[in-house]
Every structure is written in C-alpha cells, then in structure tokens.
C-alpha cells in the first residue's frame, strides 16, 4: 500500500491547522474575564457562559432555531421523497424543468429571496408567524434534501417493489418496507443538510424575522452589530462543542460513514 510522503503529511497537517485554528481562537476568547474580545492571558473565567445562561433573548432564539430547523428539514424531506421518486422513475414532459424549478433556490441570491418573501408577506399580511418563517426555510432548504434523496433514488431497481406488490403488499407497505430502506441514506443525509442550512440561515431570515421570531443567527448578528463583548464567543463555543458531541453520538449510534457515504460503501 502506498504511504503518504513527508510533504504530503505536512500539507495535510497545515491544512487541518488552518481550518481548526479559528475555532480554537474563538473558544479561547470565550473564557476571558474582560469585557471585550481578548485571549484569556490572565486566567480562565466562566463569566460569559454565566451571562449566556442569563440571556433569555439568546436562549429563546436558540430554541426557535432548533424548532425551525426540525420543522423545515422534516417538511423538506417529506416533499423531497415523492419528488425524487417521480423524477427518477418517470420520463414525463418537462421533467428537467421541474427539477430545475425545485433546485432554483440554490441559484437565487439569499438577499433577493429575502426581499421577495418580505414583499409577499407584507401584501398577504401573514408575516411575523412561526409558520410563515418555516415556509421560507422549507423553500430554501428543499434543494439540499432533494439532491441527496434524488441521488439515492436514481438507479433504484423496481423489481423488488414489483415483487412485493405481486405478493399482495399494498403500495404503502411496499414503499415503507422495500423502497424507503433502500433510499434511507439519502433521505437522512438530505435531512441533516437541510437542518444545518436552516439553522445557519441568516441573510434571508434577516428580512422576514420579527422580534417574536428571531433566530439564533439573527440574534448573534444583532449582538455583534451592537456590542463587542465576548458573549458571542460563548455562544459559538457552545455550538462548536454541541456539534462535536452530536457527531460523536451519531457516529456511535448509526455511523457517520453510513449516513454520509452510504451503507456497504
């Protein structure tokens, strides 16, 4: 087996340091005792984590982002499954146009989408609600769920499904017991990408969010624009550590290779 040389290993090490170093710096600044952004050169302090625990605005925004991500990713995945099956199975007129339409939010700048949604909600007088914000996020994250789901449905053999139907299974049973397990990797991966994109969405959300529907990215943006205290680094540290723990738990329970690469690969 060919082994990587010294320069190859050095390049990979420098690349990892280049990626990880900003995260380490942000986490280090979260433990400062000073009232401005600085590295904790005079000892560690949990001052800003205690301030975060007392900041109800940030906590409420975090809870809203979690609920919004779960709702929008789940709805997007439920829409992506029938869409991907129809696109991959049937050669109907305008199939390419339908696919392009469903993936079009990827090609439209978030600023344009935000202005369009703001105008639409203003005219329809339905802005400011959680479900209005969910609708915008579903439209934005649907392409991410659809792409991975579509990748798992293309080339899917229908002989096993036909065999289940010929043996008396209903269409729902054949889908649930035969089709869904074979496309599960794409569905789960698409759901994960959709959730991450929804949780991280800022540019478009700024236009449609209201004081009652402020997500965590919007709250962090407002915090940075108004003050330079290290509270934002404490929020970032919690998110970084939480993400690492979530990945470890997911790897232990399911296996990241099965979710991101696919079973048997």
UniProtKB/TrEMBL annotation:
InterPro entries: MetI-like, MetI-like_sf
Gene3D superfamilies: MetI-like
Highest taxon, organism lineage: Bacteria
GO biological process: transmembrane transport
Species this protein is from: Pseudomonas graminis
GO cellular component: plasma membrane
Membrane topology: Multi-pass membrane protein
Location(s) in or outside the cell: Cell inner membrane; Cell membrane
Membrane-spanning intervals of the chain: 7-31, 68-88, 100-122, 128-146, 187-210, 230-250
PROSITE patterns: ABC_TM1
Family: Belongs to the binding-protein-dependent transport system permease family.
Protein name per the record: ABC transporter permease
Keywords in alphabetical order: Cell inner membrane, Cell membrane, Membrane, Transmembrane, Transmembrane helix, Transport
Domain ABC transmembrane type-1: from-to ranges: 62-250
Main localisation: membrane
Pfam families assigned: BPD_transp_1
């Amino acid at each position: 087996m060919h082994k990587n040389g010294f320069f190859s290993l050095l390049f990979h090490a420098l690349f990892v340091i280049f990626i990880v170093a900003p995260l380490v710096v942000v986490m280090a600044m979260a433990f400062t005792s000073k009232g401005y952004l600085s590295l904790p050169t005079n000892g560690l302090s949990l001052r800003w984590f205690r301030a975060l625990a007392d900041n109800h605005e940030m906590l409420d925004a975090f809870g809203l982002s979690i609920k919004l991500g779960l709702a929008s990713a789940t709805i997007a995945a439920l829409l992506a499954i029938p869409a991907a099956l129809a696109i991959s199975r049937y050669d109907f007129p305008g199939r390419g146009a339908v696919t392009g339409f469903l993936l079009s939010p990827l090609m439209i700048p978030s600023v344009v989408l935000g202005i369009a949604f703001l105008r639409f909600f203003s005219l329809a007088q339905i802005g400011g609600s959680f479900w209005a914000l969910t609708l915008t996020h579903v439209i934005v994250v649907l392409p991410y769920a659809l792409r991975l789901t579509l990748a798992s449905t293309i080339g899917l053999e229908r002989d096993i499904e036909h065999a289940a139907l010929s043996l008396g299974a209903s269409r729902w049973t054949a889908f649930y017991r035969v089709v869904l397990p074979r496309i599960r990797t794409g569905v789960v991966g698409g759901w994960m990408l959709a959730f991450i994109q929804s949780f991280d969405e800022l540019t478009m959300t700024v236009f449609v969010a209201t004081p009652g529907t402020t997500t965590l990215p919007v709250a962090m943006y407002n915090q940075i624009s108004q003050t330079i205290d290290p509270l934002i680094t404490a929020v970032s540290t919690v998110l970084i550590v939480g993400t690492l723990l979530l990945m470890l738990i997911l790897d232990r329970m399911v296996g990241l290779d099965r979710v991101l690469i696919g079973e048997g690969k």
